[in-house]
Amino acid sequence: MNSIKVVLIDLSGTIHIEDEEIPGCVEALEKLRSCGKFKIKFVTNTTRESKKRLHSLLKQLKFNIDENEIFTSLTAAYKLIESQQLRPLLFLDPNAIEDFEEFRYQHRKSKFSCHWIGPRYV
Questions:
Q1: Which 3 state secondary structure label does DSSP give 90?
Q2: What is the C-alpha to C-alpha distance for residues 35 and 51, in angstroms, rounded to an integer?
Q3: Cα–Cα distance between 38 and 5 in angstroms, integer?
Q4: Where are the alpha helices (DSSP H) in the chain?
């Protein structure tokens, strides 16, 4: 049997709700990390805030999480855009746009090859 190599932990509603820690999660995460047997990654499907903003919130809540341990749906979209060399027209929450800064002004130079629509724009 293979041993566990990575633990994926959802963020919103699992370790925090809005700007409040779910009681006991900081300590539970530290205990999990102290095992040292596997990597831990944090996942979320939020499109309302950038990874940097999310990381900042988690630090304020006293979570010991590295920004590189967080994988969001925006991270997945960014990787797709980058790997396929797309030129997106972005309709994102202002709190999320910083994850796409390098693509932000491409629309002035060329035709679009994809569109990303966040929940506020549907």
A1: strand
A2: 26
A3: 5
A4: 25-35, 51-60, 73-83
Q: Which residue has the higher pLDDT, 91 or 96?
A: 96
Cα–Cα distances (Å) from 48 to 38, 52, 82, 109, in that order, read 29, 12, 20, 27
pLDDT tens for each residue of 12-47: 999 999 999 999 999 999 999 998 888 999 999 988
Which own/partner contact pairs does 75-84 have at CB distance under 8 Å and 24+ positions apart?
75/51, 75/99, 77/116, 81/114, 81/116
List pLDDT tens digits, range 55-68: 999 999 999 999 99
Quick one: how far is CA 32 from the chain centroid?
Answer: 21
28: Cβ contacts below 8 Å, ≥ 6 apart: none
Residue 93 — φ and ψ, nearest 5°? -60, 140
pLDDT of residue 122: 45
Residue 25, classed as helix, strand or coil, is helix
Tell me the whole-structure pTM to 2 decimals: 0.81
